[in-house]
Fold these 2 entries.
Entry 1:
Amino acid sequence: MTVQIETFECLADNYGFLVHDDKTGATAAIDAPDAKTIRTALARTGWSLSHILVTHHHSDHTAGIVPLKDELDIVVIGPQAEADKISRLDRTVSEGDRVSVGSLEFEVLETPGHTLGHVTYFERKSKSLFSGDALFSLGCGRMFEGTPGPMWKGLATLRDLPDETMVYCGHEYSAANAAFALSIDPNNKALKKRAAEITQLQSKGKPTVPFLLGEDKAANPFLRADTSELAAAMGVKLSDPAAVFVAIRKAKDGF
Ligand code: ZN
Ligand code: FE
């Protein structure tokens, strides 16, 4: 195994991740919610940080960049469209770009909507998707900056990734997402199964992240905006999945 991933909780409900390449020793942090927690994770694993891959400009994903950059020799990579909002970027990326971290290669996928320039990183060798605040287990980020069409299109692109992809998302929102999803899609077996699993994991104090994309495709209402079940549940025409998507998003905002 050349790829090792360390998942850790930080701030109120964020996740931090270290992705380590055994072959070269290169290690990337996905986002930098908090420098202190990342330092602790580095000490625990014995890895030395070489890169930070940033998904979007919100402070709970970027606050650790400056302190870490000040003390370590690291390369910071983030979305081109948010370069003016994120300090200390060494390289900017957009759709289709590849980012090498040692022998690992991350593919950049644009997922606008939560923020306009939000990107996600897909590591093909280990089939790991780092989805930031674009895609959560049974949910997706709030639409703060974008519009429904591109946001739906970005999520549909993530849905096209292989079923065996493991998703590492930016927050632990699974239980609240499950409650909402069940309210609009109550007869979905895959959803009921995942909701039960989330309850189980949380009762043992365990994280619900990472999760399997193939299972989320069948259970996450936001990835099912082009199904007749969700169109009917929202009372929106099936022919306009972006409209179904935004109806689900608005319903969740008010849930
Ligand atoms: Zn955010
Ligand atoms: Fe966030």
Note: The chain has one domain: 3-253.
Entry 2:
Amino acid sequence: MHFHILTLFPDMVMQGLSQSIIGRAAERGLLSIETVNIRDYTKDRHRKVDDYPYGGGAGMLMQAQPVYDAWKAVKERIADRAQAVSPQHVPCGYATPQKGQAQDAREQTKQAASQRVRTVYVTPQGATFTQQMAKELAKEEDVIFLCGHYEGIDERVLEEIVTDYISIGDYVLTGGELPAMVMIDAISRMVPGVLTNGESGDTESFEGNLLEYPQYSRPEEWHGKSVPKVLLSGNQRMIDAWRREAAVARTRERRPDLYRKYEQGQECIASLKKQKLLHMDMIELIARGQAQIIFAEGANICLRDMASGIYFHTAENENMGKRMLKELAKQADAASGVGLLVLHQEFMVEQAKRQIGLSDIMACSQVVYTKREKLPVTGLYSVDGEEHAGQPGIRPLGMEHIDAVVRHYGEIVDREYIADRIAKQAMFGAFLGGELAGFVGMHAEGSIGMLHVLPEYRGRKFGKALETYMINRCLERGYTPYGQVAVGNGISKQLQESLGLCFSRSCVYWLEKAQEEEKER
Ligand code: ADE
């Protein structure tokens, strides 16, 4: 991920961000931080970048020209870099473009890359920065930060370049450098690989609308205070339960605003559990802290998964269902609208197609592993990730495996999505003799999927091994493992049944944004 900071104080930013975890991540090539001195772009003989505001008033304003030219220079560099790497993006299985075509493709890549770069103006007038914003921005390849000074920046340039106005809180600082540094720190730790302990980015304060539980280290007693006994018990289940309770109590006490959201989520879970198997996707979204509640009234619930942008909808009857679709359309991303929607009742399918302009993709059964005990792995795979005595080793896939995954799933999910799953260490391969024999993944919304065993390795329980691996991995994280099996996929059904997973009686229905021609018909 690349950060570009437009500032009048580049040294201040570089000094702050070249240390500790962020500095090390930059050294390891996971991030790059570039500062651009806006003053270098002024056309003024005296290198001036500010002037008096029209209409009078206190202080000076940063002028449009140097800000715009500095920003344009960064965009050009981003576009050139995208162009230089574009041949890698030719999807496998497609013919390599001829010379002229390649040039066109590169030009398109350059244009696309430079068009969509997020430009954040850090300002007390913006929306308040949250952990969720940090997560979303961490998915971008490039983010430009614009740091203001004096009394602000000429509005005309802001209108042309800014995509996001963000504040770090309701107080005013002397400039945008500190807020930009705060945001870059929070975003960076959401970039896969930046935090060395793979889990810590997932399980800290604000996940699931709960603050983090209290933590203790040695010595066991300090200033007459003992570490809570349960933490010394070695009983992980009791420890987890204690931590959960402590997190809830702390949130209730310190952050009543967050606690209200947590409670609303718990009420939704209680209602969804009345048809637990059918609603496991929605239950897990709330439990894993990924859900934005769009609508909740009794058993009528509509959620947006903040990780994938997918909407989930369950309704008691058609009237309530329609009301929720209306609400959903109103709240849907202004830019992308409703891209994907998962309905939990068949009676809503035709209505959603008409009301929002969606088309069917598939109907699936929800399959859930309802036990808490991990599945046995002996005879299936080696737990250390290395292969032993004919048993495969299972470990995260690297980008070098993307073609293998695209070959089998490229029709269903696009290459960019698979690259994202690999980058987030959410795809795992079974390896034998150093060769990839099969793979499985976790979708952005949290279901287990994309299971595939290469033909020459079939009949050797590799599918079972990969599925078992994912189920146990989910359990280790306190998740309920679940997946979705498309109606008619007998092989997958058989495998899930053999592992003891339970099937929902009715289906969930996946719909996607209809193509323009379809909508017109
Ligand atoms: N610039 C000055 N104060 C700020 C704040 N609170 N957040 C973001 N940018 C700022």
Note: Residues 375 and 468 are 6 Å apart (CA to CA).
